[in-house]
Design goal:
The complex is a heterodimer of chains A (about 350) and B (about 260). Chain A is mainly α. Chain A has helices spanning about 30-35, 55-65, 75-90, 100-135, 140-155, 155-180, 190-225, 230-235, 240-280, 285-295, 295-320, 330-360; strands at about 10-15, 15-25, 45-50. Chain A folds into 2 domains: about 10-90, no CATH class; about 110-360, no CATH class. In chain A, helix 6 (about 155-180) packs antiparallel against helix 7 (about 190-225). In chain B, helix 3 (about 100-115) packs across helix 4 (about 115-130), helix 3 (about 100-115) runs parallel beside helix 5 (about 145-160) and helix 6 runs parallel beside helix 7. Classes of the chains: A mainly alpha (about 350), B alpha/beta (about 260).
Chain lengths: ~350, ~260
């Protein structure tokens, strides 16, 4: 291994050119240059020390594909290798043509429709499941339900509390600046309370839960699907939905309203904090004003969204997980999709709620 | 055949996972052109040893010499050069899932040799066809390949830089007997045509009989013995005897029938 290595070389000989040196992969770049510059020359003699398949491929460009026309000086092994490579060299097959714009659009539309149908189907399966649960309550896996309550409810408390607090503070700060110019500091109470109770508390809560729990559901179910654990449950005579989906559905329906109330409280707390510091509005004044001007209906308007959002998140997360096929990369793909879709749907549904409540005059 | 160089030499290798000692004072020598199988019971560290040879894992102590040079004293540059002389096929193929088969094979050639354009694709196609893959596989993604094709594609990528040493981790695991036999034939053909040295970790006794000319048996934290399989099945060392017990019986019955 330690002998001197000669780089590939080409020199003029009596009736053509002579090749020598190492015709191997480490010299591929030089070989390519030699081949390109000397295509017109007749190779009369070869004294190559080493040859491998990549080198052979370049060599064939110089000496042609016809074994009988190959010049003198090839060893038996080199000749054998050249013949093998000659046989195996071939053109790259054409790639699939990309479809035109219109067809791509059509495909996309069909994909969206198929997707919507899958989502509806899944929702149908879920509702059937809930009905069968009412008839046979023992189907419920209490331990898994408690698991969900802890992991997706209790453990989410710090992050949701913190984010809602900051959100409330930011709104109070920005809104307060404007109100202060009119001397209408006290109206920050209405601003914060209405916006947090009706809209932002349920929304921020749903977005965090979608990112935290919805993605975890999708990842967990997709992984189980990959490992054929879902099929294993079925083969053991168990309903995979009862084990995997139902506890998540019930669990999230229970914790979402609680988390929403939490984020309402901390959000208003954040506003109150900023009002105290920036607008000289003491917490006592804030709370008195809150009690006298804010109608409880606003609280209910916000709270009623929570279970609906929970349903959406579980539906999307579990569906994405259950539909996962293919290899490990499907898990990541499905997880991302579940987050994007559930946040998308949450905001759409929130907009629909706004229209509905406006019509109802709440 | 006597002047064959030593390609891989392991001296006094020790490998530990926490308290668990996998290798201790392990010695092994592999000569150029050999087709060596690493066998042994579960947990004897066959795959670990293979990844140490492939420079993917450092042994806790001991010396590894590849192509006659100790790798522990090498600079980063020299290590890189050594890596190009070793092709590794992983058990699950480990093809990059975001690239097509052809792009997978092109990657090492492009990154190491700075080759571009039609020659690059040509070289990759050559490797693809050397392992017997159908041409249409070139533009497929690894997810859509069958098990057998995946393994061939993995070998194609391992051979991209024409390494003299090819390491294979359980090459025939998960293939049906016909597919495994075809894969073994391909390995033999490549070995003969490309002047390769093969080291494979395998449990497939059929593979061991057809592909390899030397078997290194791992047991008692070292290589107990390295010898041809014909001698191995007659070995009276209790661990080896236990491992090949069924195999011996099977072969004996087969021979009686003939």
């Amino acid at each position: 291994m330690n002998e001197e290595k000669q780089p590939p070389n080409i020199i003029a000989a009596s009736n053509g050119v002579k090749l020598s040196g190492e015709w191997t992969t480490p010299y591929l770049k030089q070989l390519q240059k030699i081949a390109k510059n000397n295509l017109q020359h007749q190779v009369s003699h070869i004294a190559i020390a080493q040859l491998d398949t990549n080198g052979s491929r370049v060599l064939l460009e110089l000496i042609g594909n016809e074994p009988s026309a190959w010049p003198e000086g090839l060893t038996k092994e080199q000749r054998g290798l050249l013949e093998l490579v000659r046989e195996k060299v071939g053109p790259v097959p054409a790639e699939q043509e990309s479809v035109n714009l219109l067809a791509a659009l059509g495909q996309q539309v069909f994909r969206v429709i198929r997707h919507g149908r899958e989502l509806l189907e899944f929702a149908g399966q879920l509702s059937a499941l809930v009905f069968s649960l009412i008839r046979h309550p023992r189907q419920l896996k209490i331990k898994m339900l408690l698991d969900v309550l802890q992991r997706d409810g209790l453990n989410a408390v710090p992050i949701i509390a913190l984010l809602a607090f900051l959100l409330g503070a930011v709104i109070a700060f920005q809104g307060g600046l404007q109100l202060a110019t009119y001397g209408a500091n006290i109206f920050v109470v209405e601003l914060i309370s209405l916006i947090m109770l009706r809209e932002l508390a349920p929304l921020i809560c749903a977005i965090i839960v979608a990112g935290r729990s919805g993605s975890a559901f999708a990842a967990q179910l997709a992984t189980m699907q990959m490992n054929q654990e879902v099929l294993a449950l079925k083969s053991l005579g168990q309903d995979p939905f009862a084990w995997l989906v139902l506890p998540k559905l019930l669990g999230l329906m229970i914790v979402m309203p609680l988390l929403t109330v939490l984020s309402m409280l901390t959000g208003i707390g954040g506003g109150m904090f900023v009002a105290m510091i920036q607008l000289d509005l003491s917490p006592i004044e804030f709370i008195q004003r809150f009690g006298s001007v804010v109608d409880p209906i606003h609280f209910w308007v916000g709270l009623i969204k929570a279970p609906v959002f929970a349903l959406l998140i579980v539906n999307v997360g579990c569906m994405q997980g259950m539909l996962a096929k293919g290899g490990a990369e499907a898990v990541g793909h499905r997880t991302t999709r579940s987050v994007v879709q559930s946040i998308f749907l949450v905001i759409i549904v929130d907009a629909l709620f706004s229209i509905l409540f406006a019509q109802l005059g709440w | 055949m006597e002047d064959h160089k030593v390609i891989v030499e392991l001296k006094q290798i020790a490998t530990r996972f926490g308290e668990n000692i996998v290798h201790e004072k392990l010695d092994l020598k592999i000569l150029e052109g050999e087709r060596v199988a690493l066998v042994g019971g579960s947990g004897t560290g066959k795959s670990v040893l293979l990844s140490e040879i492939a420079m993917l894992r450092e042994p806790d102590s001991g010396e590894i010499e590849l192509f006659g040079e100790p790798i522990t004293q090498m600079s980063g540059r020299e290590l890189l050069a050594q890596r190009q002389k070793i092709g590794m096929m992983f058990q699950q193929g480990a093809l990059f899932s975001s690239l097509t088969v052809l792009e997978n094979i092109m990657l090492p050639i492009r990154e190491h040799q700075r080759i571009k354009g039609p020659l690059l694709k040509d070289l990759a196609m050559l490797k693809l066809r050397l392992t017997g893959l159908p041409e249409h596989a070139a533009h497929l993604y690894p997810q859509s390949l069958s098990g057998g094709m995946l393994k061939r594609a993995a070998v194609s990528r391992a051979l991209a830089l024409d390494p003299p040493l090819l390491l294979l981790d359980e090459p025939t695991a998960g293939l049906d007997p016909a597919g495994a036999a075809a894969f073994d034939d391909m390995l033999l053909e490549l070995h003969a045509a490309l002047n390769l040295t093969l080291i494979l970790v395998t449990h497939d006794l059929d593979s061991i009989w057809t592909v390899t000319d030397q078997v290194a048996f791992l047991g008692e934290r070292r290589v107990l013995v390295k010898q041809p399989i014909e001698k191995m099945v007659k070995d009276t060392h209790p661990v080896i005897e236990a491992y090949f017990a069924n195999e011996r019986a099977k072969r004996a019955i087969r021979q009686e029938l003939i």
